Amino acid sequence: MKTIIRNTAALVLSALAINTFAQSTARELGGFQSPESVGAYKKHLYVSNMGANNDPSKKDGDGYISKVNRNSGTIAEEKFITGLNSPKGMLVGHGYILVADVDKVLVYRIKDKKKVWETDLSKEGITYANDIAIRGWGSAFVSSTDKNAIYIAKANGKVKKLPVKGNLEGANGIIKKCGKLYVANYGRGTDPNGSYGKVSLCSKKFKVYNKGGVYDGIAPLCGKLLLTDWRSTTDGKGRLIVYRKCKKEEVAINIGRDINGPSDLFVDRKYKAVWVPAMNENRLIMVQLKDIKMQAKKNKGAKVAMAKTKKEKKA
Fold it and tell me: Around Cβ 95, how many Cβ atoms within 10 Å?
């Protein structure tokens, strides 16, 4: 789910000090257990950790949220909030953390770590709540990967399925902007068969922008979309991509390394950077926003073949 770190002039690394940034094109921070999402509030980052088992649906109690110093890149409190199962997508802001955890939506107040509300999703048969987007005060959208759907969860305990017209196969990352929900779908199985696009909150129609990846995180970026893809169709490696909506082009972003398990990214506009959890590496990767914008602008993108999608609609 979101934050960044200032560029520092020099960082001293030790082979034993894992909680520092690595000297590379993409700066890195280690010391996590299956990090899935990132958020920011004031001077700190908050990172959801699914735990040592790395099972998205397991209720084993080893999940937690870490608190990281935003400027120095050191872990302020490894287990800031504990007692979670497999926490994934988060929304952080206004002094609160909203987090999707297996079959619940939980909300914590940052100043005292107090849980202020909880919505049970299990009555809808959900076992893989994945990401969260704000809907309104006391209300949030939550994606359900196992149900291929998006739900509305309220602080009063009510849960309602959003009646989307379209296929949200393996619904994963979601973010709301200007009356639309942008959605990244993971797909099913081991093949890169996911999709991404937008859902109009008026018509409830899902418009597909592209298919052919294992998509996770999604965020709007200056008229474009920034996404994480666990497995590209070309080399099977995790990557960052930018989708140019106006040109219907997809650009792969080179950060100087592959990403093993790129999850719910966060665009930190205040500090002009992007955070990407590398879940299978137990690390966070920070990329300068200007580098992404430059590549998205200058690099030639691959034309997205939407003709296939149109034929599928006719079938």
Answer: 11
In a domain, 249, yes or no: yes
The 10s digit of each residue's pLDDT in 96-150 is 999 999 999 999 999 999 999 999 999 999 999 999 999 988 999 999 999 999 9
Q: What is the domain count for the chain?
A: 1
d(CA 91, CA 40) in angstroms, rounded, equals: 9
Task: Report the distance separating Cα 307 and Cα 148, nearest Å.
Answer: 24
16, part of any domain: no
d(CA 230, CA 210): 15
Q: What CATH number does the domain containing 97 carry?
A: 2.120.10.30
Question: Parallel, antiparallel, or unpaired: how do β-strands 96-101 and 159-161 relate?
Answer: unpaired
* 241 falls within a domain: yes
Which tokens belong to 232? 């590209």
Share in percent of the chain as helix, strand, coil (round to 5):
10, 50, 40
Query: What does the block give as tokens for 67?
Result: 């608190």
Q: Could you list the residue range(s) of the whole structural domain that residue 214 is in?
A: 27-314
pLDDT tens digits for 220-231? 998 999 999 998
Compute the distance between CA of residue 137 and CA of residue 140 in angstroms, rounded to an integer: 8
